[in-house]
Amino acid sequence: MRIDILTLFPEIFAPLFASIPARAQEKGLVEIHLHNLRQWGIGRHRQVDDGPYGGGPGMVLLAEPLFNATDAIEAQGGPMRTLLTSPQGPRLNQETVFRLAKEPRLLLVCGHYEGLDERYRDAKVDEEFSIGDYVISGGELAAMVLADALIRVQPGAIDAESVRQDSFAEGLLDHPHYSRPAEIRGLRVPEVLLGGNHAAIEKWRRQQALQRTRDRRPDLIKDS
Ligand code: SAH
């Protein structure tokens, strides 16, 4: 898939070029294109924001650079779905990640300051998403969260079995994990994991996943 990101701060996005996301790009599973909104700024000063009509604090991203940038980015490739980072959108969850991961092309638009001119949202934004009920300074971190989550579930990015096991993939939290040594500071790995009985291990893991979900996130069980 192709992910375009429209931002005033492309330099913030280094995490999308390390670790699993970097490998996924090397393997050709995903392409990430960063676009600096400033490029479409107005006038000699490449203005991208101004004070709000009606007065009040803060700056608003101007509609014109956003419209022009979106049209130019769309023209660079096939049709795309435009997503706006916003604390007012529906909260992102794994189900949405799986749905969006099937799109051939997404544009993630990063707001900043007080937000952006509502007319851009009305005319160009297909969908909004929030990373939680709190406000962060700009949409960059939110866009990175979604992009990373999308990359992780691209077939071939990581082991398919890990994706299936991950928390939320099948409505449960993941089971606990252990590695060597079998004992440290008096703490032992659960015996069943050392025994090599795969059916017993599977059963234990399933029980643990269920128990944790009941203890920590009963809402996940009620919802399903
Ligand atoms: N005044 C706005 C918040 C502006 S914060 C309001 O109260 O709705 C500036 C930008 O950061 C937003 O435009 C959005 O792009 C991003 N942002 C802030 N919190 C976010 C969240 N929880 N999820 C996704 N994006 C967020």
Features:
single chain, 224 residues, 5-stranded parallel beta sheet, two-stranded antiparallel sheet
> Span from first to last CA?
29 Å
Number of strands: 9
Q: What average pLDDT do the residues reach?
A: 96
Number of helices: 9
Largest sheet: 5 strands, parallel
Bound molecules: S-adenosyl-L-homocysteine
Spatially, the strands of the biggest sheet line up as 2-1-6-5-7
Proportion of residues in extended strands? 5-15%
Q: Helical residue percent?
A: 25-40%
Say what oligomer this is: single chain
Give the SSE string. EHEEEHEHEHEHHEEHHH
Poorly predicted runs: none
Explain the layout of strands and helices:
Layout: E1 2-7, H1 19-26, E2 31-36, E3 49-50, E4 60-61, H2 63-75, E5 81-85, H3 94-100, E6 105-109, H4 118-124, E7 127-129, H5 140-152, H6 160-165, E8 183-184, E9 187-188, H7 191-194, H8 198-216, H9 218-223
Parallel strand pairs: 1-2, 1-6, 5-6, 5-7
Antiparallel strand pairs: 3-4, 8-9
S-adenosyl-L-homocysteine binds next to loops.
In short:
The chain is an alpha/beta fold.
Description:
With 224 residues, the chain is α/β, with parallel strands linked by helices. 37% of the residues lie in helices and 15% in strands. It contains nine helices and nine strands. It has helices at 19-26, 63-75, 94-100, 118-124, 140-152, 160-165, 191-194, 198-216, 218-223; strands at 2-7, 31-36, 49-50, 60-61, 81-85, 105-109, 127-129, 183-184, 187-188. Strands 2-1-6-5-7 form a five-stranded parallel β-sheet, with helices on both faces. Strands 3-4 form a two-stranded antiparallel ribbon. The longest helix has 19 residues, at 198-216. The mean pLDDT is 96. The chain binds S-adenosyl-L-homocysteine. Residues 85-88, 110-112, 114-115, 130-132, 134-136, 138-139, 142 line the site of S-adenosyl-L-homocysteine (SAH).
